[in-house]
Structures are given as structure tokens and as C-alpha cells.
Amino acid sequence: MTDRSSLAMGKRIKRFMRKEYLYLMLLELLCFGGICLFGFSTDSYTTFMSPDHLYDWMINSNGRVLIGFMYKVWNVLGLSDRVFYTLNFVFFLVFIFIACCFVNKLLREFVTSKILSITLSFITIANFFIVEYLCFLEKAGFALSILLSCIAAYFMVEFLKADKRKVLFLILSHFFLNLSALTYQAVVSLFIALTVPFAFKYMKNFTSYVINLALIAAMYAVSVAIAFDVLLAAGSVRNGISVGIWQGIETITQSYVYICATGIRIMPKWFYLCSVVLLGILNVIGIFTRYRKEERLMSLINYLMLNIIIPLAALITVFSSGWALTPRVVYTAGALPGVLIINYFVNVASGSESKVCITDILRKLISVYCVLVIVLQFFIFSKIFIAKYQNDALDRYRIEMVADRISEYTEDTGIEVKKICFYYDANPSGEQYPLVFFFKDMTASSFTREWSQLNAVNYYTGGNYEEAEKDTELAEYFHSVDWDVYNDDQLVFDGDTLHICVY
User: Fold this and answer.
1) How far apart are the C-alpha atoms of 233 and 231, rounded to whole Å?
2) Alpha helices, DSSP H only, in 322-430?
3) Mapping DSSP to helix (H, G, I), strand (E, B) and coil, where does residue 398 land?
4) CA distances from 27 to 30, 123, 151 (A)
5) For the segment 293-328, what is each residue's pLDDT rounded down to a tens digit?
């Protein structure tokens, strides 16, 4: 290596090791490090037991082309389950790190503090709702979709602020947005969240503001349409549902009210609504402090548009695709508080007419809020990750008990069990282990999902059991009983078939 290349490499390393980047890595490890050990979602058991079909399934059933390609590479390389999990975790950290850097690059012109700029980028991209992505095996794929949307937003902002708008920026933005949609459709709305504040910042007049918004919306719509066209072409059942416009509005409204009130049970109750209201007050105070009378109205309209467009873009997926209201589906809604802060710095506090005293006070309040979010995320994420590992351990222990009963039955009768059938009691519960924190898909037991029941048993026992047809009389009997914990009476052997009741 020449002296010149060594010097250049040294400069790159020094640039990378700047305190704000080290701080960002620390934030990632603090909030995400708890999920680094090998673990499972209910989907993981199916994934590990049927790796040859993942590529086709991801494309044909989900339209996630790039995630499907990721599974194809795994299959070709023949990596072990644990290695694949670890690589997903590492790439998740890498992709989120780069995504935050792109957002930080957009903010550096407006946020004087490097640490605050990084923190704001992090709580926007790695908001509370991102935790559900970490609970799935393909976490790197979700993070890749987030990164691609951030890159698309970056080029869109470059397009908006160019004196002579360069078509190349628009093409690049649309290209990366399409890739994001073909990775995971629900993340694409992040593009809207990140670009709308800059549509106002770089407008020439109200007409150009409307044009900017229309262009952003059109790019989003085209990308989503391409993603759903892939689903339609593949014949997926996830190709949308037909609902009336009023039913759609009702669904979106109810969903957003639920998010505001509960934070989808990830945030503390009412924390989401309080965040939006508090940050809204800061924006309004800043608007009245900075702008003259004739400019306040447009700035208030822009603030109102943020609060309408971002939740709408995030929630429209719920009723248009038939997906459930889960954090991973409405991930962009979790970015709204961060975007409101971004709007404050980009469109409110960046003008020379701001009153220094008021601006400093508001900036300090925002800094306190950002610290509060990081602290809450650390404890909440840790609680969820611990619950996941507890659930995995209890599932494995329960399956090992079932395996012991199978061995005892075989020794006593000489009959080898080849088939297993699952049933439910009178009041089946998703919360299989009452002392373990439960939140739907994030901490669901493998016994509660039809696609993971048999696969989990085969995974832990190393068996090759087949699924048996249900016995009508047994189904009626199990439905008449109500268990709260595991009991050997939940296992009924009949020839080469084991019937298991899930409580």
C-alpha cells in the first residue's frame, strides 16, 4: 500500500470514528443489543424446516423480492441457522446505521449540535415500532427496506432544493423507492414522512408547495402499485381487499385513535398522543415566534399536513391490504414525533428572524424529549427481548416434555408415533405463559400458530412427524375442557397418532 493510499485510508477511518458515529453505534447496541442471541419467531420454525421453498414463498405470498433473494443466497451458501440469524442481526445494525447517517446528512444544515442531529435521526428511523422487525428472522430485510426509503428521501430532497431541478435526482429517488417497496411494502411510507418537511422548506410559493406534495405522493403511489402488481402477478392472497371509501376512513380513524391511546402497547399509554401534542405545541410556538403574520398560515398548513399525511400513508396499508394493525405494518406512524421535530428545525428554527431566547428553550425541551425516548426504548425493548427468550425456552421445555411422553408411549406399546394433530380447548389463549410478557407476534408461542406447531416439534425433537387429520370426537372433548397450564391430559395417543390440545 502506498503512502498516499495509507493516508487516505487513515483519513477515512478517522472520519468514521468521529464521536457522533461512535455515539450512533452506542445507541444501536443500547437499544438493539438485547436481541443479538439466537432466537425464534413463530415464522422461524417454518423457515428452518423448509429452507428450500423460502425464495418462492417470499415472492409469491408476500411480494418481497429482495428478502426472497436473501433467503436464496442463504440456501445456496448452506449457512447454519445460527450463522444466518447472526448475519441478519449484524446487517440490521449496519443498514439502520447507514439509514440514520442519510437522515443526519439532511439535518446537519439545520441542527447545530451533531449529537442532537444523530439522536433525532435515530429516534425517527429506529422509533418504538421498529422493535417488531427485530423479533423476526429476516430483520436485515426490513432494515434494508428502511435504508432504501431513506436513500430515496435523500435524493428527493436533493431534487427539491436544486436551483435547476436535476432529473437524475428524481430518477435515483424513484429507483431506490421501488427497491424499498419490493423489499417490504409497509416501509415505503417512510419516504413521505421524511420528504414532506422539505417540500415546504424548498417551495417557491404555495403552488410549488402543492406541486412538491403531489410529486411525492405520486412517487409513493407508483412504488406501492408496482409492489402490489408483483403480488397480483404471483397470485398472492395478500393482494388487497375491496372496501368502501367510508369504511376505509372509519378503519384508518379507529386505528389512529388506537395508536394515540395505546401506542399499540409498546409505548406507555397515551405517550404517543402526548408526544404529538407536545411537539405540536413547540412547532406552533416556534411558528408564531418566527413568521410574520402573512407567513404563519402557510407554515401552520404545512404542520397540519404533516399530521394528516404521515398517519394516512402509514395506516392506508391496514385497510388496503387486509393486514392487521401491528407495529411492523404502521412503522411509519411511529416516526411522526421525530418528523415533527425535524419540521421544527427545518422550517421553524432555521430562520434568522427566530428569537434566540425562545429558540434555545424549545431546543432544550426537544433534547430532553429525545433523551426520554432513548431511555424508554431501552427498557421497553429489553422487556420484549427478555420475554422472547423466555418464551423460546418454555416452548422448548414443553416440547421436550411431549417428546418424553412420546418415548414412554413407544416403549410401553411398541408403536412408533408418526403423526401429530393439534386442537384447542374451550378458551384458547395467545398468552401461553402468564408470567411472560405477551404481545401477539413478537412474543407468540409456537403452539398458538398453525404454521409453527408441528414445525417447532420437529425442530426441537429432530423428528419428521406428519400432520394428522382431526378426530371429531376428540375435538369436541377438548373444546369442553379449559386448561390454563400444561397438563399431560392434553396429550391423547391413538395408534401412530398423537393428539395435542393447546390451552
Assistant:
1) 5
2) 336-343, 356-413
3) helix
4) 5, 10, 21
5) 778 888 999 999 999 999 999 988 666 555 678 899
